[in-house]
Specification:
With 336 residues, the protein is α/β, with parallel strands linked by helices. It folds into two domains: 12-91, no CATH class; 112-335, Vaccinia Virus protein VP39 (Rossmann fold). The protein is built from 13 helices and nine strands. It has helices at residues 12-30, 39-52, 55-70, 77-89, 94-98, 120-135, 155-164, 179-192, 235-238, 243-246, 251-254, 263-274, 302-310; strands at 100-103, 106-110, 144-149, 170-176, 203-208, 225-228, 291-296, 316-322, 328-335. The strands form two sheets. It has a seven-stranded mixed β-sheet, sandwiched between helices. A two-stranded antiparallel ribbon has the order 1-2. Strand 3, helix 7 (155-164) and strand 4 form a beta-alpha-beta unit. The longest helix has 19 residues, at 12-30. It is globular, with a radius of gyration of 22 Å. The two termini are 29 Å apart. The protein binds S-adenosylmethionine. S-adenosylmethionine binds next to helix 7 and helix 11. Residues 1, 116, 118, 122, 150-153, 155-156, 176-178, 181, 210-212, 229-231, 252-253 line the site of S-adenosylmethionine. InterPro entries: DNA_methylase_N6_adenine_CS (IPR002052), HemK-like (IPR004556), Methyltranfer_dom (IPR025714), N5-glutamine_MTase (IPR050320), SAM-dependent_MTases_sf (IPR029063). Keywords: Methyltransferase, S-adenosyl-L-methionine, Transferase. This is S-adenosyl-L-methionine-dependent methyltransferase. GO terms for molecular function: nucleic acid binding; protein methyltransferase activity.
């Protein structure tokens, strides 16, 4: 969920500007849209753009061009391209313009404003968790039960479901307070895993629920694994976010309650403490490093969140996991 993304030398507004210019070049030169700008002028401009654009920009443009090819653009659809270009130059996030993002094993996960666009760092820890769950033996007679709190587009739940069902029976439930998010997650489930094609007993479902007002048992708990990427940005930091995030993505998906933005972790820790949320590991699974809880955290929150969970007195080993940019990005918690 971070916006300060590593790896690129450019600030995000400048980076987006470059991407927009490069897509403009595609439309003007390769796409053949008649804009009144001569090819000579466009090519001259494109050379300048190409030399300036950074690697990440090139990737995004390639991604966009692939999307355009996949849509077999012809005739009147060029107008649609032009409109995509204009939306990009106005600062709309590329993922919303394309309408989908890849996430782990999911090639096309639908996204739409204002539901949070899944972030690469979330994808990274989700992939790690999936590998760990696949490697650890689940109780043979039962499905592994997973709860995804604050599910948004359903990216984490659907990705885990996709991975796990190839290996074992899984029951995945995603909850979100936002009705629009739940509708989107359900639509994603339906298009990625059409019910008529399902041959396994595995299930994935999404329900509307407020994390501050729900009882784990009433939604089917306890669960073997609970994951959560909650809103965690403190209000004063949200106010400084770049426009592409602040003006387009739901504030309620980003801002965590309290001065430090840690309100959701406190609530989750209280749920863990009160019981009914986590299933005790079976004797078969004991001793294996199978995460029971995974939460994503803000870049400077890992230790504070670890203390919140330690304070519950529930026996958990807590590992702070760093993402590809060496940022403390998630806590993996294991039954002791
Ligand atoms: C940071 S987004 C995470 C979305 C998705 N899991 C992801 O990783 O892309 C947080 C989500 O929490 C949801 N949310 C906000 N307040 C909530 C609450 N009180 N109870 C449940 N969900 C809530 C928002 O609607 C949003 O979809």
């Amino acid at each position: 969920m971070s916006v300060a993304r590593g790896g690129g030398a450019l600030s995000l507004p400048k980076f987006r500007h470059n991407v927009a210019k490069r897509i403009g070049r595609f439309l003007l030169v390769d796409g053949g849209v008649n804009t009144g700008i001569s090819n000579k002028k466009a090519t001259k401009r494109s050379k300048r753009i190409r030399s300036k654009a950074d690697e990440e920009g090139k990737d995004l443009v390639r991604w966009m061009c692939e999307e355009l090819k996949a849509r077999q653009v012809a005739g009147t659809e060029k107008r649609e391209l032009w409109s995509m270009y204009r939306r990009l130059t106005r600062g709309e996030p590329l993922a919303y313009i394309l309408g989908n993002v890849p996430f782990g094993p999911l090639a096309r996960l639908e996204v739409r404003p204002p539901i949070l666009i899944p972030r690469p760092e979330t994808e990274e820890w989700t992939e790690r968790l999936a590998s760990m769950l696949i490697a650890s033996p689940a109780p043979r007679s039962e499905a592994i039960k997973i709860l995804d709190l604050c599910t948004g587009s359903g990216c984490i739940a659907l990705s885990l479901f996709s991975h796990l069902t190839k290996h074992r029976q899984a029951e995945v439930l995603g909850l979100d307070k936002s009705r629009i998010a739940v509708e989107l997650a359900r639509r994603n489930a339906h298009s990625l895993f059409p019910p008529q094609q399902s041959q396994s007993a595995s299930k994935v479902a999404f329900e509307q629920a407020d994390m501050f007002d729900f009882d784990p048992v009433s939604v089917g708990g306890p669960f073997d694994v609970v994951v959560c990427n909650p809103p965690y940005i403190p209000l004063d930091q949200w106010e400084k976010l770049e426009d592409g995030v602040r003006l387009w993505e739901n504030k309620a998906a980003l801002v965590g309650p309290g001065e430090t933005g840690l309100g959701f972790y406190k609530r989750l820790a209280a749920l863990v403490k009160s019981g009914g949320l986590l299933r005790a590991p079976s004797s078969e699974a004991k001793g294996k490093r199978r995460p029971a809880i995974v939460v994503e955290v803000g870049h400077d929150q890992a230790e504070k969140v670890r203390d919140i969970f330690k304070g519950t007195g529930v026996g958990l080993d807590i590992e702070i996991w760093k993402d590809a940019f060496k940022v403390q990005r998630a806590l993996f918690m294991y039954h002791q």
